Amino acid sequence: MSDESISLKKVLVVEDEKVMQILVARLFKRGDFSVELSTVGTIKEGLDFIDKNDFALLVTDMSLPDGRGVDVIRRFRDKFPNAPIIVMSGSLTIEVEVDAIGGAKVSTCLQKPFSVDAFHAAVSQALKS
Question: How many helices (H) and strands (E) does the chain have?
């Protein structure tokens, strides 16, 4: 194992739209963040990854084909109580959705479409913790 792989922070991205998965991966790369990305498209996949891995950050959509992102957030928060969470949503009620889970220490809510600068700022802040 190289020294570089030891310093990588593992990030889980839960997003069902392939275009958004690609965009988020490119934004992480463009931001030159030292991360190892795992990207999945459903709540079921997200829960499986959370159960089997350790993550430093969750980036999740709130609307997924098999339910609401709050289920992923709750499981992630249970396993990683101090890890940051970035929520992405095209919904106009993103704050209401986050309130539904009691805030769950969500670090940032990004309203789709979001700017590159907003994404980089959210990730930079989240990875500092």
Answer: 6, 7
Helix (H, G, I), strand (E, B) or coil at 44: helix
pLDDT 10s digits, 90-107: 875 666 566 656 655 677
Can you tell me the distance from the alpha carbon of 5 to that of 119, in angstroms, rounded to the nearest whole number?
A: 23
Strands (E) across 7-120 are located at: 9-14, 35-40, 57-61, 63-64, 67-68, 85-89, 108-111
Paired tokens of 37: 């990305």
What whole-number distance in Å separates Cα of residue 59 and Cα of residue 110?
10
Residue 74's closest CA among 65, 87, 88? Answer: 87
Report the predicted TM-score, pTM, of the whole model to 2 decimal places.
Answer: 0.88
Between CA 76 and CA 42 the distance in angstroms is 14
